[in-house]
Amino acid sequence: MKYTSPDTKYLSLDRRFIEQPLKPAPPPIVTVHKASGYSGYSSTTTQGHSSTSHNYSSSTTKLNSSSSSSYKATTESSSDKRNAKKYGSKLDATGSPSRSRNTTKELAYPSDESMKPPEFTKKLNDLTINDGEQLELTVKVDGDPEPQITWLKNGKTVNSSEIVDLKYKAGTATLTINEIFPEDEGEYICKATNSLGTSTTSCKLTVKPMENAAAKKKSDDKPPKIVDHLTSMFVKDGEAVTLSCRIIGAKKFDVVWLHNNKEIKPSKDFQYTSEANIYKLNIAEIFPEDSGTYTCEAFNDAGESFSSCTLNVLVPNEEPKSPVFTTFPQSATVSEGETVTFTCKTETAPLKVTWLKDGKALPETSSKYSFSSDGDKSFELGIKACTASDVGQYIARAIGKKGETNAAFALNVTNPGDL
């Protein structure tokens, strides 16, 4: 018996197994995608199958080439079907959805038909109201996304305040002014804006002046007159301060106090008092922010009178704002046709003193006014032949190297014989 070593036996079996011909690989399954730039099946890294990889790549190339015309027809057919759908992507019907960047970009999303630009369903109309009445402008607007509302008067934005109340809810926008004055006349615009556009509606407001009070008033109805005016002064931080003036000439009238042209609401800190014909504003404790112009205004249907002064609050360890007034101009009430003179003095010589009426500098070339100075610290303003047009709020403004200071006063003009 021939001896066969175990190693030889196993070697023979291994050789027989290796020498058996390899079965051909199954044909590749190829999926066709529309997306451009598809690189096909990547080569296998196993050396023993390198020939198979090359065959597969060649087969893929051939398939793509031979089916290009039929693929085009399929795409056109799919496109026609997609046009009838609400949503659709430009994919070939024979393949699975592609996740390539190019295909994703071609997803077609229709616009939301519910979205629309603003449209006013209730617009503004021109109107005329009486001086002193309430104004309410109302509009209704539709739009998606919900529009933002802006109000304008004569081209300038109107903001909500103590005087103007703006509201917008559930598509309805309102602008309300409780008491209208002649200066509220003008063009009002409501503008609605969203991401799709802007729409506006406008109206012209005309304020009808009150009837001539002189024709309506009773024979004993007269306007109030301030005869003893407010006095400007320096006060110390934390002090109690009282401003007072004497008002005559009318049986009934109202009095309001203002700080820098804003009405002071009576409170425990700012109390209105009156005794006989003396009217006072009591400030319990003065603070630096209380510095400024104070005005007492008395009025009724027959007319009005007012007086102004300046309070300067001195803060410990701080020098007063320079230049410093040592003599303030005093408010005055004169008869029509009279000439009036206002005087002020400063502690040091300022660079210049200017005079203003209702916030505007008086023209130095006008024959109506006279301006004089001693060349140092004393200055005068003269107003000749006073008329109703001279009534108003005045300021003497001293300008120095380190800043400027103001001294406020008022002028009232009455009919001859009323004083």
From TrEMBL:
UniProt key word Disulfide bond: yes
Classification via Pfam families: I-set
InterPro entries linked to this entry: Cell_Adh-Cytoskel_Orgn, Ig-like_dom, Ig-like_dom_sf, Ig-like_fold, Ig_I-set, Ig_sub, Ig_sub2
Chain intervals for the UniProt region annotation (Disordered): 19-119
SUPFAM superfamilies registered for this protein in UniProt: Immunoglobulin (SSF48726)
Biased segments, Low complexity type: 36-77
CC terms in the record's Gene Ontology section: myofibril
Domain Ig-like: 118-206, 224-312, 323-414
Keywords, ordered alphabetically: Disulfide bond, Immunoglobulin domain, Phosphoprotein, Signal
PANTHER family assigned: CONTACTIN 5, IG-LIKE DOMAIN-CONTAINING PROTEIN
Protein name in UniProt: Twitchin isoform X26
